[in-house]
Amino acid sequence: MENTIHYNTEQQQELLVRVERNNRMVQRLSQKLNSYTCQPKCPQQFEKFYELNKSIENFKKHQKHIMSKIRQRKMDFSDAVNNEVGNQLDRFKKLEKDFASYLTD
């Protein structure tokens, strides 16, 4: 029984590390997006640029919400794995994909 609890704790820590790593990556992507090298050059890129900025802000808002819940220990981690943390990881994947699409256009 203790091994199962230990595994869950390890799994929780691993998810938290991934969420924090993704947050740092989004901060770097945001800096890159706002640098002069990634400035939009046509109307379609301006639209993508604004959509990416909105997505980054949305990601940051959810990140703060999740981290505050975890710090307050209000979050039952079994729910978080299926819902909020999983959704945040999906948001990161989509954001990363959209950013790559923006850079290749």
Overall pLDDT level: 80
Q: How would you characterize the largest beta sheet?
A: none
Shape: elongated
SSE pattern: HHHH
Helix content: over 70%
Question: What fraction of the residues are assigned to beta strands by DSSP?
Answer: under 5%
Q: Pick out the low-confidence regions.
A: 1-7
Total beta strands: 0
Cα-atom radius of gyration: 17 Å
Compute the number of structural domains. Answer: 1
Distance between the termini: 53 Å
Q: Count the DSSP helices.
A: 4
Q: What structural category do the secondary elements indicate?
A: mainly alpha
Please tag this protein with its features.
4 helices; mainly alpha; 105 residues
Describe the structure.
- The chain has 105 residues and is mostly helical.
- It has one domain.
- Helix content is 85%, strand content 0%.
- It contains four helices and no strands.
- Helix 1 runs parallel beside helix 4 and helix 2 runs antiparallel to helix 4.
- The protein is elongated.
Summarize the structure.
The protein has 105 residues and is mainly alpha-helical. 85% of the residues lie in helices and 0% in strands. The protein contains four helices and no strands.
